[in-house]
Amino acid sequence: MGQDAAFPETERGVTVAQYVPSPMQWSERALQVRQFVFDFWAEQRRGPNLRAVHEGTGLARRDIVQAYKELQTGIVVVVDQDSPNCDILKIPPYSAFPSQVEMYVDDEFHSFIGCAHEAVAVSKMPHFAGKEVRLESYCACCLEPITFWSKEFVVTRYAPQEPLVHVGSPMWDWVHDDMKAMCDHTNFVLDREHGERYEIQIGRRGVYFTMDQVHQYVEPAVGTRGWDYHWPSQSMTPEGLITRLEALGVDLSPWGVGDAGNA
Known about the structure:
Elements: H1 28-44, H2 50-57, H3 61-73, E1 78-79, E2 88-91, E3 94-95, E4 101-105, E5 108-113, H4 116-121, E6 132-138, E7 145-151, E8 154-159, E9 164-167, H5 180-184, E10 186-189, H6 192-202, E11 207-209, H7 211-222, H8 238-247
Antiparallel strand pairs: 1-2, 2-3, 3-5, 4-5, 4-6, 6-7, 7-8, 9-10, 9-11
């Protein structure tokens, strides 16, 4: 969930992917494709292929593929641009491949969810209004189950306990080209002790969010994503993210930021 940014350039005058200007001016084909994919996924519990998008929007192959590229630039979707089918890998909150979170609706599997942050946000999507969804995940350290239930952006209960969210990649490495790696590094842990053991396993230091901090972090997007046909693009800027996370009380010192860090 990114922040608005200026549009700086590298020394060679090439735009950095993290600093895509926000909001972008969406094309109508991008808006059509985005709305169709969200509606299709909520109903069918899977992503659409090109034929389904064509039949649902009337757009031709090239328009669909170019719309996907536009949506990826605005941090809405992750697609395989090297595939002639431009396969959808992620369109948060959904993941097309097995991820660290599973969502169940009416006690039936619905979708894999992109990351621990998205697990907190997904119940606010308009397709699940009035429903309690179950999110099943696990501790990244020991793989013990972590489950919670959420209804319209309110967590109703946890089992076995309220977890922490560990983010193992610093904001300077979020969304170089797409958001997949950022999502992969955002996981649940049972507590800080388990988080520290996980850090040894992966050879990385991370930061910790409480579930309340996650709720505050994702809140600006959940009221518009899926609800507003024209909801804006996002942008990732490390400077803006540092300001935002410090305001939430997230300790960034493991990444050398803040009073206890080097920056």
